[in-house]
Amino acid sequence: MRILKEVYDSRHNEFLPQFSVECVILAFNDNVLKVLLRRVDMGDNWILPWGLVHKEEDVDETAERVLKESTSIENSYVKQFYLFGQKDRTDKELADKILTTIQPKDAENHWLRSRFLSLAYYALVEYGKVRMEPEEGEELSWFNVDKLPSLFAKHDQVIKIALRTIRSNIGYVPLGRKMLPEKFTMPELRAIYECILGQELDRRNFQRKMISTGLIIPLNETLKKGAHKSPHLYCFDKEKYQELLDNDQELVRIIL
Amino acid sequence: MRILKEVYDSRHNEFLPQFSVECVILAFNDNVLKVLLRRVDMGDNWILPWGLVHKEEDVDETAERVLKESTSIENSYVKQFYLFGQKDRTDKELADKILTTIQPKDAENHWLRSRFLSLAYYALVEYGKVRMEPEEGEELSWFNVDKLPSLFAKHDQVIKIALRTIRSNIGYVPLGRKMLPEKFTMPELRAIYECILGQELDRRNFQRKMISTGLIIPLNETLKKGAHKSPHLYCFDKEKYQELLDNDQELVRIIL
DNA sequence: CCAAAAGTGTTACCATTACACCCATGC
DNA sequence: GCATGGGTGTAATGGTAACACTTTTGG
Question: CA-nearest residue of chain B to A118?
């Protein structure tokens, strides 16, 4: 558990106190959305990957670091979506575990026990690119977003709010670009949107709309996969796409 | 300056350290959007109303308190929209001013000097209900959002992002409900939307759309005002409205 | 009487929706 | 051959946009 080491290294005043960053890391595989969760010492409860903010680190960098520590992925996409700041929000159980392990001198009144503010991010990653390297005693695993295990604190709420946030901003979120491989098929892209929206979308209309954005380039290749007609492969026009993303412009208009 | 008192009262460890809440308080008057700013000791720069988070206080409560302290308004509408967490974000100038005034024993290394995280809220208030009660040496004043004075730090950016956030969520933000008096006219309501969107909207289509939400009740009164035909007065169906708001549902669909 | 602002109704248009039909593949 | 999934075209629909005319009021 990385945080243990960091705190233990008596660098605990290298962090901003009473503040953490947690990441809802999302990927798409097997036609469902997955979220990455962590468990320590085979405990009962899973938890979102999280971290503390170094004193010389932007909070966005913290989120990128947390993402990298759990997935080995860099330069992907992280976006803050909510600061959870209720006064009773604290991971007492977790603090106990950490503090009894590392036994700092101020364990009794250590700030880890006190109230926490948590800034939540969602991250979109390509499932196939993820390389998990859990630490000793740590476990990392994907879960379907609609079949979550027992979670610490109210982390299931955090995940729900992440999904709702993405849903309500769906036209601005680079779902396909960040969750699909370089080359992808239209049914795959559509499936992501259907998962997020929780409803089916018309095949043909979806395709038309996506093509009409001008952000998607058809390739002269098909994907041989199932026992059916091979779907075409596409890729994104990365430059155009990035420009819209950088300026917070709408990528595609989805109306519900 | 309230914060001075609070810190001075040696209750400085009653706050979460290195964390502040700042409010972009918006109102509508004279057909333009106004933002409330604060200035201390007739200094050169204005600043957004802000505050520290009490240890036993939700961050939302802090925002409500900051709003109340500057406008006397309670039970209005505050919404967090972004946490500013760059590593170089600190109000050195402000910290100096506070610390030289109150001279705490740990002034040199006081956490007020260190890096700050700021959670930004926007608040929507009814202009006519605002009662400013500035403290000694403190000044409060409205400014047109497009004619801002010189601001501390990057607070003009914060205001811009607040407006952009509202714009991109425009259908979900209770603009009229929170910024207009009990009874209002359709041209007034439209003017707010035009300010936020930065473009004119067709009178008739706007009216139709608003009425069709079912959230607006026409009254059998008109407002006698200018040298023109008196516009009808309307009020909101508060119950229906609140229900949508509570469930994060769309109030009205504005398409651009 | 005129200018300015507000109320109401109607039409044209375009984007979304809802389909139907054909093609490719593996069993 | 057939079931399944993918590709493409078209007609119907419904909401939005554009606009004309009337009414009211103060100067």
Answer: B83
